[in-house]
Description:
- There is one protein chain.
- Helices cover 57% and strands 10% of the residues.
- It is α/β, with parallel strands linked by helices.
- The strands form two sheets. A four-stranded mixed sheet has the order 1-2-6-5, with helices on both faces. A two-stranded antiparallel ribbon has the order 3-4.
- α5 runs antiparallel to α6.
- The protein starts with a strand and ends in a 9-residue tail after the last helix.
Amino acid sequence: xxxxxxxxxxxxxxxxxxxxxxxxxxxxxxxxxxxxxxxxxxxxxxxxxxxxxxxxxxxxxxxxxxxxxxxxxxxxxxxxxxxxxxxxxxxxxxxxxxxxxxxxxxxxxxxxxxxxxxxxxxxxxxxxxxxxxxxxxxxxxxxxxxxxxxxxxxxxxxxxxxxxxxxxxxxxxxxxxxxxxxxxxxxxxxxxxxxxxxxxxxxxxxxxxxxxxxxxxxxxxxxxxxxxxxxxxxxxxxxxxxxxxxxxxxxxx
Length: 253
């Protein structure tokens, strides 16, 4: 690992955990930057991320892999999130193994490039395709991590899934009941909520496909969770899994 710190000290045990994650995912020599100014570093390094923000519906981004102007993949670590709080060495290792998957995809020019796609297609089409592409990229990485024996990502566990189902239902309800809302704004609100949740479903599917067994069923959710699942996902889950099983993990072209 080629590790650079822009501010914070990186303890030896954290550095070792990072290296284990990179090694496991086949990117032992990846370039890693740990920074206190995560958003600023992303905007500086990635020419397509001038308006990048780290906040997401499910929290704040802990790491992101970008391609610099020299086209080299760089894993940028948000020190405040990835190295702070109660995050364990195992959490850090998993995070770096996940980002190593992005490095593999960048290295084979298989990573998502929404900037170039949006220039060639109408905005709505580009948004829908972009959501699908991001989900597939995350699926490929999580599928690889499942085969390596890593635990399911927290964003796809039952508790998190329950919360995201409720949040998406509330977002759609709010959009539908906003007085005099334009069709464009309605679409933006709904698609914004669907983006994050579609990625979460990809995380869950990566676990299911990677381990080769159907360990998740909607009956594991609460009564309200099952209702939201039926409304928002329903029978499409089986079709989604069938599609995702045909897509290789991140370590395979």
